[in-house]
Amino acid sequence: MLPREELLKGVENRDSVARIIDQAEQAIKTWEVVLTDFLSPPVLVEIQRQFARLTEVQLLAWGGYPQAERQRLAIARLELPLDHSQVEVAVLDIAGNFLFDPATHRDFLGAMLGTGLIREKTGDVIVLGERGAQVIVVPEMVEFLETQLTQVRSVPVKTQRIELSELKVREPKKKEMTTVEASMRLDAIASAGFGTSRSKMTDLINGGDVRVNWKDISQASYQVKSGDLIAIRGKGRLEVGEVTVTKKDRYRVQLTRLM
Predict the structure, then answer these.
(1) Is residue 125's pLDDT more than 90?
(2) DSSP H or E segment with residue 198
(3) Of 117, 4, 92, nearest to 50 (Cα)?
(4) Do 71 and 54 share a structural domain?
(5) Boundary (domain end) residue, out of 144, 166, 188
(6) pTM of the full structure
C-alpha cells in the first residue's frame, strides 16, 4: 500500500491526487498499465511532485504532442516498460465554415461539454481559424462525439476521427529577452515579456486570463520569481530566468517567451 496520508499532505487538488493514488495501487496490484483521464497542468504538476518520492511506481504523461497542456498519465510498476504509445489518445477534426461566425476555444469546448461529455475526457483544443478545430480526446469517446457534436455556435460541423500525425501543431518559437524593472510584480514582468502595455496586462490578470505555474492569479501585484512560468491563453508562455539586482536597486530579469 502507498503512504496515502503522506502523499495527500498539503496538496491543493486533494480529490484528484487521491484518485490517482487509487489507480497507482491498482497498477501495483495487477501489474497492468493504468491510464488516467486528462489532467490539467496544476493537477499534473502536483501529482508528479508528490509521486517523485515513490520507488514502487512510475508515471508517464502524454497529451498527443510534446507541448500539450492537458495530458493523461500512464501508471505502472517500476519494473514494466512504459512509452508514449501506451498512453492512448485520439484526435477529432471538427470541420465547418466559421468565416462569418468565428468560434473560440471556449466555443468548441462548450459545444463538446453540451453533448454531455465531461471535461476530463478531453485534452487540448486546437483552433484552426475559419475552418474549425481539432480536439484530443480519450479513444472511447470518439464514436459518441462523431454522432453528437454537429454544431458549434451557429455553424454546422462534421466531427470525425483523424490520425495523430494530422494534428496541426507547430513547434513553439523561442524569444530571449532581458528587461529591467522596479519590482517583480506580475503585471510588470508579464507586460515586458509579452510586449503589451501595463494597463492591458492588468486587465488580463484581473479578468482571470493569466496563470503562474498553472495557477490562476488575479492580483497584478503578485510577486514572481526566477523559475516561474507565466501563461496567457492564446499568447503563449513566458519563462522567468535569472534575476539580478542592479546598482540602482532595480531588477534585471532574463525572460524566454514561448510562442
Answers:
(1) yes
(2) helix 198-206
(3) 4
(4) yes
(5) 166
(6) 0.80
